[in-house]
């Protein structure tokens, strides 16, 4: 039976895969596991719950709250806020648990449930496995005054806004760090539709807002960080200096420059790393990125005297490396950027503020990005193969070695088995699109031939 928890909580089609009954059971199991681990010892437990605006979040968040309260946990319901806001508020309120009901960048019919431990950190794999093992068990229910209470706490969203604005002020030393920047925000009709523009304006930006009218059905629908067309057009139309786009729960951010050219997570990380090194706040002059980050980022960081530590794909692995070693900046090409001095998870609003501050201080985004070239990259998903043999097949290993030898320092090859499907991802970067395509096609053919089921 496949593991219920994925790399980012439990996710699926709402009301079929992810039901109200499952939401209640997950909440109860989480409460029991954390209680047995001593997380609630000596006090009445408390949780923070938030969600994105999708329609199914209404009944799923109610189910989570009911499950927690029935297990004796008091619940602060902050309603529609970004995922990083829940992480921050879990820490700032001293709560024992945080819960986000969101499917992030997925289409509206999906939803998900994600837990944060005390302090706003994601749960370890072992804790998630323990929760999954406890689903549906018999238990002794608290009675009378021992049941949890539900408190509506939407006003706490303002504390998150104050926090992220305070973070960019602290980073830059300026009261209005985005002064003079004209900026378009695409909120994806998502969780940051209100707090995102509010934070950017508070930091001094001239903000134009698009796609910030959530109705429960339109989240991520052709807008936001996975559909940058509307943002590109709006930036050019309004003569803005830059644009930023969030996903549905605003834990990621992508950008465009004043011409509408995309600025992906690699370039955002690189620019923030260079600024942090200049200010003397980049711990060990090190950036943490996944194996999917472009080779161009590696070259640019080497030129800037910055080391890159690589992790597996997934922001949780970036976070693990950062926490274990004290690094302060990391992220993914997709726009999950983690600034650990100010956040315990990827934070799209904070990222937008920090990037806007760079434009205010250092000039046009397009000119800054010139220092971080992006090498042509081709990614091919080869389906219907035995992913378990991707690193053991001799002929495939020889083909990879040949490609790497031909590419030399000007390119890169990565073969990665999918964690959930019978497919292998073949990624090649090279100095030219033609070279990248040639080597990717060649290796994909070898994968298909050698690893066929």
Helix run count: 14
Annotated CATH homologous superfamily of the largest domain: Alpha-D-Glucose-1,6-Bisphosphate, subunit A, domain 3
CATH class label of the largest domain: Alpha Beta
Radius of gyration: 22 Å
Extract low-pLDDT stretches.
Answer: none
Beta-strand residue fraction: 15-25%
> How would a textbook summarize the main sheet?
7 strands, mixed
- Would you tell me which CATH topology of the largest domain applies? Alpha-D-Glucose-1,6-Bisphosphate, Chain A, domain 3
Number of DSSP strand runs = 19
Indicate how many domains the architecture comprises: 3
- The structural class is alpha/beta
Arithmetic mean of pLDDT: 95
What CATH architecture of the largest domain would you give? 3-Layer(aba) Sandwich
Q: How would the global form be characterised?
A: globular
Helical residues, percent: 25-40%
Terminal Cα separation, in Å? 21 Å
């Amino acid at each position: 039976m496949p593991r219920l928890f994925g790399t980012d909580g439990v996710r699926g089609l709402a009301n079929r895969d992810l039901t109200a009954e499952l939401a209640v059971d997950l909440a109860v199991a989480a409460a029991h596991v954390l209680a047995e681990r001593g997380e609630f010892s000596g006090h009445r437990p408390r949780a923070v719950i938030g969600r994105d605006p999708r329609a199914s979040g209404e009944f799923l968040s109610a189910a989570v709250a009911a499950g927690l309260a029935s297990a004796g946990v008091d619940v602060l319901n902050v309603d529609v806020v970004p995922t990083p806001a829940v992480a921050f508020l879990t820490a700032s309120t001293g709560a024992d648990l945080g819960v986000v009901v969101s499917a992030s960048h997925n289409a509206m019919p999906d939803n998900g449930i994600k837990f944060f431990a005390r302090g706003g950190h994601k749960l370890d794999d072992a804790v998630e496995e323990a929760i999954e093992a406890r689903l549906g068990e018999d238990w002794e229910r608290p009675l009378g005054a021992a049941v949890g209470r539900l408190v509506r706490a939407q006003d706490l969203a303002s504390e998150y806004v104050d926090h992220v604005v305070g973070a960019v002020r602290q980073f830059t030393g300026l009261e209005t760090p985005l002064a003079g920047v004209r900026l378009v925000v695409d909120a994806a009709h998502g969780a940051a539709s209100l707090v995102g523009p509010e934070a950017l304006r508070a930091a001094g930006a001239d903000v134009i807002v698009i796609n910030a009218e959530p109705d429960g059905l339109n989240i991520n629908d052709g807008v936001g960080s996975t559909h940058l067309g509307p943002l590109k057009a709006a930036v050019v139309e309004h003569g803005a200096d830059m644009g930023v786009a969030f996903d549905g729960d605003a834990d990621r951010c992508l950008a465009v420059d004043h011409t509408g050219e995309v600025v992906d997570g690699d370039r955002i990380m690189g620019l923030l790393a260079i600024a942090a090194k200049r200010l003397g706040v980049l711990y060990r002059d090190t950036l943490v990125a996944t194996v999917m980050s472009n080779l161009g980022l590696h070259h640019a960081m080497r030129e800037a005297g910055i080391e890159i530590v690589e992790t597996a794909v997934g922001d949780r692995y970036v976070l693990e490396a950062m926490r274990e070693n004290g690094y302060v900046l990391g992220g993914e090409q997709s726009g999950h950027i983690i600034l650990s001095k100010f956040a315990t998870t990827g934070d799209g609003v904070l990222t937008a503020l920090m990037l806007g501050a760079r434009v205010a201080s250092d000039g046009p985004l397009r000119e800054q990005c010139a220092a971080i070239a992006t090498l042509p990259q081709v990614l091919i998903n080869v389906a219907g193969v035995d992913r378990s043999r991707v690193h053991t097949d001799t002929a495939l290993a020889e083909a990879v070695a040949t490609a790497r030898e031909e590419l030399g320092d000007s390119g890169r090859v990565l073969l990665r088995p999918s964690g959930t499907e019978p497919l292998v991802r073949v990624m090649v970067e090279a100095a030219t699109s033609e070279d990248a395509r040639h080597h990717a096609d060649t290796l994909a053919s070898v994968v298909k031939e050698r690893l066929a089921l």
